[in-house]
Each structure stands twice: as C-alpha cells, then as structure tokens.
Amino acid sequence: MKARIKWVEEVSFLGETESGHAVLMDGPPAGGGRNLGPRPMEMLLIGTGACTAYDVVTILKKARQQISDCVVDIQSERAEKDPKVFTGIHLHFVVTGKNLRPEQVERAIHLSAEKYCSASIMLGKTAKVTHDFEIIEG
C-alpha cells in the first residue's frame, strides 16, 4: 500500500491514496490552519472506526444476521505531552437489524478487535482500546 502527502499551504496537506482517492487535512486557525479538513489524528480515529465497522458488518452478514445499519461512536484520550499518542480509545457500536443475536454481535466485535482490524490492533499498542455495543431492532 502506498500513499502520498502533498503540502498545500500553511498547515494544509493533501493525502492521496494508491486507490486514487484524496482527502484534505488541515489544522485549526489557532495553529495556522483554515479548518478546511480533518486533523491527521482525527483521520486515524475515523480510519480505525471504518476498519472495525467493515469487519463487524462483514462478519454479521456471513453469520446470516439481518443487519441494516452499523454506527461506531468513538471517544479518545491522548497523552498530555509530545508525542501526544492516543492513550485510550472507546468504540461504541450501534447495530441495527432484525432479530440480531447479541452473542453474534459481541463475537463480531471481538473478532475484529482481536484478529482482523489492523488499525485498532496497531493503536492498541499505545492505547487501551475498549468496546461496547447496543442493538436496535429495526
């Protein structure tokens, strides 16, 4: 996998992926940015959320669960001093579907956390990563 980061101006950078997608990242006005895009550390969080949500949805579909939606709300904590690594990340899954079995949802989240989600497993080297979930019938 390859990626390219190009400085645009001030503290704005354009990230380009090998698959041909681009995202603008920027800093807050107080830090010289214009708030035109997410911060790089925010990108890490949303990438992690997407990685684990992908796993959970895929695992539940393979288990023939009738999933219709999956939202991951993420809360994080960072170190006070540089490098300000993530020290805690909590992922709250809100899974919607018909007759979803809680044990299947829990299993899917566990498999993602322990085996499949490269992003959360990598971040787990510096942060305590926790999970919980709720099921909405719908």
From TrEMBL:
Pfam families: OsmC (PF02566). Gene3D superfamilies: 2.20.25.10, 3.30.300.20. InterPro entries: KH_dom-like_a/b (IPR015946), OsmC/Ohr_fam (IPR003718), OsmC/Ohrsf (IPR036102). SUPFAM superfamilies: OsmC-like (SSF82784). This is OsmC family protein. The lineage of its organism: Bacteria, Pseudomonadati, Pseudomonadota, Betaproteobacteria, Nitrosomonadales.
